[in-house]
Amino acid sequence: MSTNQEDTDPHNLTGSCLYDLLCQETPENWSCRQNKRQASSYSPQGRLENFLCEAGNNICADCGSPGPKWVSVNLGSFICIKCSGVHRSLGVHISKVLSVKLDDWTDEQVDSLIGLGGNTVVNLKYEACIPENVTKPNPDSTSEDRSDFIRRKYELQQFLNSDEQNSCPFPAPSSSGCTTLICHYGGGPDKKFFEKHTNSSRIHGIGHAFRNSWRRKDSDHNKSSKKSNSMAGMVEFVGLIKVNVVRGTNLAVRDMMSSDPYVILSLGSQSVKTRVIKNNLNPVWNEQLMLSIPENVPPLKLLVYDKDTFTHDDFMGEAEIDIQPLVSAAKASEDCKMEDESMQLGKWVASKENTLIKDGIINLIDGKVKQEIFLKLQNVERGVLHIELECLPLTQ
């Protein structure tokens, strides 16, 4: 009798509580939580990172370095920091480089990138026919080897499969002039389907991961000092500079009553430009652009033009920014590991020798080294540019 009472005692809730909890775990509740976990994957950034994890995209398309953090959005390839510097030197008309983490992505940009197929498809196209006497770079390759290969691959397009021939356009040094079977794949209506849907890819071996840092070993420095900076892309990079072109004020008139201004930024052999703002002498771009900083730090040059449809674009002024103080401050902050502090690190002093309207203060804000600059445009009747700079180590 007592045993039966224990079995039916309403105060013995251990089993019933567990049962109630299990009953509450309906498929709808599970689905709700799963949707919340997956919500971030549907954002542009989440979709981009998911695409980065796919086979072939998790190594640099050009040298095989693991964990690429940069993308050529118009070519469709994921690339490492060293190769991204060469890509920038090609110009945005060939390769427009964005950061996976540092840039803001839209759904349209991610859709376009995914539509290009990723590293496997890109390499099947641009490395379809590599001669035996050409070696693809590895993570430890020199700047010269890396630059030469990337330029031949994308700018000169020397490794494409010929549409007119069923064999490689290069003379074969041995019985076969190609290192991939796709070279012998003929043209025809199914060629695009084949290139997009094949799952095989010739991927070169991955060497040791290279060390990205502001500081460089003496041996590396001595080696790089012998390299010529006269050829674009054949330079070592010590960091990145994020340039936010904020706005222009009281710019010159180049049309009937106004202008259609845009800004070109150049650093060494690299150049990028903002969008055109129509019919505005006080344009607000608020546009962020990224450039690699060469080891021998050159000035950042700015050119302003008025966009014309039927004639050459009209000149609207120019200016230069000495970014060496910003780079030095960034190196110092990294050396001292000042990540969470906020303080003034230095400044670029306004003088008659530069075009600063006021001192360009360099601040450490939330671990980021930033500088705000107001420049008076030169060789033009009037105009001021508001620029914000941020210096980033290569590890980002």
Oligomer: single chain
In terms of structural class, how would the helical and strand content be classed?
alpha+beta
The rounded distance between the terminal residues' Cα atoms is: 73 Å
How much strand? Answer: 15-25%
Major sheet summary line: 6 strands, antiparallel
Report the uncertain regions: 1-8, 10-16, 28-33, 164-233
User: How do the strands of the widest beta sheet line up side by side?
Assistant: 7-4-13-12-11-10
Tally of alpha and pi helices: 11
> Over the alpha carbons, how many angstroms does the gyration radius reach?
27 Å
What is the global morphology?
A: globular
Rounded mean pLDDT score: 78
H and E order: HHHHEEHEHHHHHEEEEEEHEEEE
Number of strands: 13
Fraction in helix: 25-40%
Summarize the structure.
This protein has 396 residues and is of the alpha+beta class. It contains eleven helices and 13 strands. The protein has helices at 2-8, 14-24, 27-39, 44-52, 81-90, 107-115, 119-126, 143-155, 191-197, 218-225, 324-335, and strands at residues 70-72, 77-79, 97-99, 237-249, 261-267, 270-273, 284-294, 300-306, 314-321, 343-348, 360-365, 368-376, 384-392.
